[in-house]
Amino acid sequence: MIEVSELGRTFTVTRKAGRFRRTREQVVAVGGVSFSVEAGETVGYIGPNGAGKSTTIKMLTGILVPTTGRVRVCGLDPSRQRAELARRIGVVFGQRSQLWWDLPLRESFELLRHIFRVPAGDHAKRLQECTELLGLDGFLDTPVRQLSLGQRMRGEVTAALLHGPELLVLDEPTIGLDLDSKERLREFLAELNTSRGTTLLLTTHDLDDIERLCRRMMVIDHGRVLADGPLAELRDEVTPERVLVVDFERPCDELTGLPGVQTVKVEANGLRQQLSFRRDTVTAATLINLIAQRSPVHDVAVIEPDIDDVVRQLYHR
Ligand SMILES: Nc1ncnc2c1ncn2[C@@H]1O[C@H](COP(=O)(O)OP(=O)(O)OP(=O)(O)O)[C@@H](O)[C@H]1O
After folding, report:
1. Beta-carbon contacts of residue 78 (< 8 Å; ≥ 6 apart)
2. Which residue puts its alpha carbon closest to atom 13 of ligand 1?
3. How many Å apart are CA 167 and CA 162, to the nearest integer?
4. How far is the CA of 92 from the centre of ligand 1 (A)?
5. For the ABC transporter domain, which residue ranges apply (predicted)?
6. Comparing C-alpha atoms, which of 77, 42, 3 is closest to residue 169?
7. Amino acid 206: pLDDT
8. Mutation test of ligand 1: which of 13, 53, 221 has the most ligand atoms closer than 8 Å to its C-beta?
9. How many angstroms from the chain centroid is the CA of residue 227?
């Protein structure tokens, strides 16, 4: 679906250097990234501010021409075959609208139908589906400028899907949305991937988007890929420690002498104990068995490291 090899983009910027002097500088926004995305994948493309995410997305969608490297999306060269590609993919920019500001949402959709030459039946079916799943009913006839951010984003996603794209690229789709709107959008996108098989590639600073939606996470910084893989694997790789919370049936002494285990906290006379262990040396199941032999266990929970911590470590390695 996406093939990127040594893709790079440099910008020339002019800076003031004194009262009358200006210097020209080269900014490497993307410094030669390589990756591929298969049909049906859900990929989160993340990185700190200025890492080169939007520039990559713009090259993938044909808005920017790469300075170096090669990119193919749906087998097409995005910047050379932009119109053809637009019929195969959907793009949503959280910070930019593709809708007509003064037109009611429904009329924006109708215009897009003509632009993409979508058969009326297909259009009606897809619009009906989005209206139901995204709850557009109450504001389909409202001009876009009068919509709330959450309503407009639902409109943007619908607009990107009306021509039935194989790939949906989203740049910060949940930015500025309240928790309910974020959740609704995530649920919709997850369903879109499962039921229609639409491939999803998204950039986001909200790591809950990644946890909820993406089976694969790519981390970039300074235009380089720092990490690429399933979230669970990256989590194990950078933070193999886990915390096991054990609730006993009756107070018990602090657990000692368990292999590779350290006590984090003992509460309520030992009724609840928190232990840290390394997943790569002992499994939670083995540990629970060993503990249960010492004193009857009422309940257990394994606390996974927070995704924010995982990503922070990935940024700094
Ligand atoms: N049109 C441009 N002209 C000059 N420099 C640019 C241009 N667009 C981006 N850059 C620079 O390229 C680098 C990468 O920018 P980009 O917008 O791709 O980052 P990003 O990862 O999307 O950041 P953010 O999370 O802040 O949106 C930054 O240093 C930015 O200043």
Report:
1. 59, 60, 61, 62, 71, 85
2. 29
3. 12
4. 18
5. 2-247
6. 42
7. 85
8. 53
9. 14
Q: What is the pLDDT of residues 127-153, one digit of tens each?
A: 998 998 888 998 999 999 999 888 998
Ligand 1 mean position, distance from CA 182 (Å): 25
For the chain, which residues score pLDDT lower than 70? none
C-alpha span between 74 and 84 (Å, rounded): 10
Task: Identify the residues whose C-beta falls under 6 Å from ligand 1.
Answer: 11, 13, 27, 29, 47, 49-55
**What is the reported pLDDT for 282?**
86
Q: What is the DSSP letter of 211?
A: H
**What separation in angstroms does the CA of 194 have from each of 50, 68, 213, 236?**
32, 35, 11, 26
Residue-level pLDDT at 181: 85
Cβ–Cβ < 8 Å for 14, 209? no
Per-residue model confidence (pLDDT) at position 167: 96
Q: How far is CA 265 from CA 224, 232, 250, 285, in A?
A: 40, 26, 17, 20
Cα–Cα dist 51/311, whole Å: 14
pTM of the model as a whole: 0.81
Compute the distance from residue 148 Cα to the ligand 1 centre, in Å. 27
Distance CA 260, CA 125 (A): 58
**CA separation for the pair 307, 121 (Å, rounded):** 43
Helix (H, G, I), strand (E, B) or coil at 234: helix
Question: What integer pLDDT is reported at residue 166 of this predicted model?
Answer: 94
